[in-house]
Amino acid sequence: MAMPALLSAALMLLLLPGTLTQDSKPAPIGVIVENTLGNPATLTYTTQVAPRGILLAALNRLMATNSKFTFTYTEDPNYGPYLESVNGVAGNDQDHTYWELLVKKPDGQIIRPDVGIGCYIPSANEQIILRFTKW
Known about the structure:
This protein has two helices and eight strands, in the order αββαββββββ. The protein has 135 residues and is an alpha+beta fold. The strands form two sheets. Strands 2-1-8-6-7 form a five-stranded mixed beta sheet, covered by helices on one side. A three-stranded antiparallel beta sheet has the order 3-4-5, covered by helices on one side. A hairpin with a 5-residue loop joins β6 (97-104) and β7. The protein is globular, with a radius of gyration of 18 Å. Residues 1-21 form the signal peptide.
């Protein structure tokens, strides 16, 4: 019986914040807001993400520290947080508009993550692109 208790204790240590990584220093990331429909200027912001932290937390941090950046999201019961609006511009089903999530890697490659803002884990120096567009 001592072995299962020891394994449970070891598992609990893995679940405690900060135990999965030795580096607790936040990583810098950029957030680029583009509107392909209204053609306003592209806006660029900088923020930080905690080690292994999710994009949603970094966006919340940015909004808390920069009054010129706002966003809203809805919580889908099956797929999690869904980006609804950025800086007061919201997607609309009738107009077929939405906020697309793209990521520009430090090497310049642009990818479309297969997860959303609630699951994507940014790496240092990535540029998160929030692009308002049509489907």
